[in-house]
Write a structure and sequence with these properties.
By secondary structure, the chain is mainly alpha-helical. It has one domain. Helices cover 80% and strands 0% of the residues. The protein has twelve helices and no strands. The longest helix is centred in the first third of the chain and has 33 residues.
Length: 255
């Protein structure tokens, strides 16, 4: 647990600068609007069904509000998380404080974990705002708790994977704009790889479908808990953290 002091320092840095406040506010406004739009749509459909019951259409608040809301939160995170990760190592390199960081009695893994968990905690604050929305909705209707739990688990795992990529890219450059842009590009690429599974031949279809974020998170948003999805995200997180450690080790050696 030697990374705790660095974790506290990084968390303090987030709130000293306006980054955390801006990201939390923008993310909260976007997801709040999406939640309101979904609730309004559900209300209109419910009125139509109650007026014309012979439609035979069954309204389900969990499927019509929670499932698309989790999906849209995941997409919004794809845009917002590169802003949180872009400075983690890039700023240290730009200000030459990374050499000072290497003089601390910390291992490379402690440095990486301190920054990773600080960013992850900010992300948990971001998605935690939505609990207020569901708590209010629960006053008027019953939601499937299993789907909500699976949805949040998927958001946490996918967010951790996004952060791992962002930290790795940040360790490669001292330019924060480049870090954020490349991170966003990679995240979008991994998200859209599922589309290629419909284009490539049968031989590569399963490969592209498995690598893509889309298929794995889609199960979580629909309340499906599959251990293969959990293993995928954990493997993804560990792989990019390993790459980050290799970069840090090479910089320490050259330093």
């Amino acid at each position: 647990m030697r990374f705790i002091p660095l974790f506290k320092k990084e968390l303090k840095t987030y709130f000293i600068s306006p980054i955390a406040y801006v990201v939390l506010i923008i993310f909260g406004l976007i997801t709040g609007y999406i939640f309101y739009a979904l609730c309004a749509t559900f209300h209109l459909i419910s009125l139509r069904v109650s007026t014309y019951p012979y439609y035979g259409y069954k309204v389900n608040p969990t499927e019509m509000i929670a499932t698309p809301f989790f999906y849209n939160m995941a997409i919004t995170s794809l845009f917002m998380l590169p802003i949180l990760t872009m400075r983690l190592f890039s700023e240290e390199k730009r200000t030459d404080t990374i050499e000072l960081l290497f003089t601390y009695p910390l291992r490379d893994i402690d440095i990486m974990l301190g920054k990773f968990f600080a960013c992850l905690l900010i992300y948990l604050f971001m998605i935690g705002i939505s609990i207020i929305h569901f708590s209010i909705l629960e006053l008027w209707t019953d939601l499937e708790k299993k789907l909500l739990l699976n949805g949040y688990l998927g958001l946490v795992l996918q967010g951790a994977a996004f952060i791992s990529i962002g930290i790795f890219i940040s360790s490669l450059t001292e330019n924060q704009i480049i870090s954020a842009t490349v991170t966003f590009g990679l995240l979008l690429l991994f998200w859209l790889l599922n589309w290629l599974s419909d284009i490539v031949g049968e031989k590569y279809r399963e490969i592209f479908s498995y690598i893509s974020f889309f298929g794995h998170y889609d199960n979580f948003s629909e309340g499906i808990l599959d251990t293969r999805d959990i293993v995928y995200y954990l493997s993804f997180i560990i792989f990019f953290q390993f790459l980050t450690l290799r970069i840090l080790s090479s910089k320490r050696y050259r330093g």
